[in-house]
Every structure is written in C-alpha cells, then in structure tokens.
Amino acid sequence: MSTPPPVALLHVTGVRRITPRTVRVTFAGDGLDTFPTWPDQQLKLLFPRPGQSAPRLPEAPADDDGMRWYQAFLALPEDERPWMRSYTVRAHDPVRHRLTVDFVLHGDALAGQSGAAGPATRWAATAAVGDTLARYGPAAAYARPLPLDTPGLLLFAGDETALPALASLAEALPATARAVAYVEVAAAEEEQPLATRAGLTVHWVHRDRAPAGPGGPLVTAVRAARLPATPAFAWLAGEAGAVRALRRHLLTDRGLDTHRIDFTGYWRRSLSQDDAPTEEDLAEARERLAAAGEAG
C-alpha cells in the first residue's frame, strides 16, 4: 500500500521581521512530529485565494501516491485553487513540532502595497498569528545529499532567496570543511549570520554599492574571486539567469565537472512560477537531469 502525500494545514504561531526585506514565519500543524529533515530541504506552500481564510484542498485518496492528489488539485476551479510556491525549510523544531520558513519580500510589498508583488510576498508582508497556509511535502525521496565533507574548498553562491538553504547547509558542514560563500543582498542591513562549525568565509555583495557587470553583481563577484584552480564542489541558487551564468563560468573558466555543481534557479526575473517555462528553463532542467544521471 502506498503512502498518502504529506498534505496538511499550517497555522502561523509567530512572525518576525529579521531584516527589512525578510520575514521569518513559524508554523504549527499536523505531521510536524514526524517531519523528515535534511539540509537544503524544499517543500511546496499553498496560499489561499482572496476571500479564503484557508487554502482549499482536494480530498486525497487513501491509496494515493501523490500524482492523483496533484491531479485533483489541478482540477479545482482556477479562482479557488491555492497558489503553490516552492520554499526552503529554514528550521524544524522536533520537540515543539514547529516549522520555520523565511520569506523574502519583493517589490511593492516592502511598502505594504500589493502592486506587482506575487501572492507569496503579499501574504508574507501581512502575515499574522492565526493565519493558515497548507504544505505539500516534503518527500524524503527527493532529498539531494550533497558532498559537504568533500576535501578541498566548497563554493556557495546565491542571492537572498538562497539564504535559508545556504544557512541550513552551513549548519550541516563538518568542522573539517573549508568553504567560501558569495551572497548577493540589497544592502548591508540584509546580511544574516551563518552559524557553522566549519571554516566558512562569507563575502556579502551589496546591490546598492556593487559595480555593474555582465550577469549582475553576484556573477561579477564570483568571476573576480580568488579561488583554487578547481574548487571541490559548488552550490548555486537564486535568480535563474544568474545561476546559469555562474554555472557556465565554473564549467568553462574554472574547469569544474558538471557533477561537482549543484544548481537551482529559485525565481525568474519578470516571471512568476505560474508563467510557462522559457527555452532556457527547459535547457536548465535537461542539464540538471543529465548532471544527476552522471552523479548516479
């Protein structure tokens, strides 16, 4: 008998603005006592439509393997179907059964306006104790073990949307690891502490002061970085275009093998997760599949 998909409501128990652009939200909910955890852990959050106090969820068959539930989800009327977005688990408290997620505010949501901000940003900008979301996942089958104990220098690069994952990876590094991180944020007040036992050097790239360059400030900073001829492993995440440029740089200019780079485009400039994938998105997906096949 297959396992029902991990779908459950999440209830807000705490909200804290940890930087001007980042909101940390803590949730309670069913299933958090047996919640599987690992570094860089992704799950889907479901946000209610206007007028809903909680997201509408389809009934999941008891013998479902996940796909039937998702098909039922897609069958909901579009104006009632929750918005689904991918987020990183920032922390899980197995004793208090609490889940923490950090939300980066974009656009007009910083000023408390709806404007061009997406549904997740709009929700996070006004989140309050008692609000309700839902989760779909995570599934341990999709965990991607990373070689964090690899000898040699580990390279991390991402923007503020990558910080929750990067922080969880830093916490998981062994004391013997050596790593360097390049993190692009809006300004100095967006920096966050990264706790780790390892020898980790963090370079903050501030958009309000960074020089302009091809691919953006993060790409410019990594291109100029003094790194070993071939870093042992690289982890890249953030805006999809910047991630693709960083990966090309590491493959072409730094000589890394494809299986030594883990890369994920979290968001796309001027596009949302509801927009159709571009040719570059499809090419990235093919590259990820090919890299995973080589690693296996």
Considering the chains and any ligands shown, give keywords for the structure.
296 residues, alpha/beta, Elongation Factor Tu (Ef-tu), domain 3, Rossmann fold, seven-stranded antiparallel sheet, five-stranded parallel sheet, 6 helices
Describe the structure.
- The chain is of the alpha/beta class and 296 residues long.
- The chain folds into 2 domains: 7-141, Translation factors (Elongation Factor Tu (Ef-tu), domain 3), CATH 2.40.30.10; 144-295, Nucleotide-binding domain of ferredoxin-NADP reductase (FNR) module (Rossmann fold, 3-Layer(aba) Sandwich).
- Helix content is 22%, strand content 29%.
- The chain has helices spanning 67-75, 119-125, 163-172, 217-224, 240-252, 279-295; strands at 7-19, 22-29, 42-47, 83-88, 91-93, 98-104, 132-136, 153-159, 178-185, 199-206, 233-239, 261-267.
- Strands 4-3-7-1-2-6-5 form a 7-stranded antiparallel beta sheet. A 5-stranded parallel beta sheet has the order 10-9-8-11-12, sandwiched between helices.
- A hairpin with a 2-residue loop joins β1 (7-19) and β2.
- α4 (217-224) packs parallel to α5.
Quick summary:
Helix content is 22%, strand content 29%. The protein contains 6 helices and 12 strands.
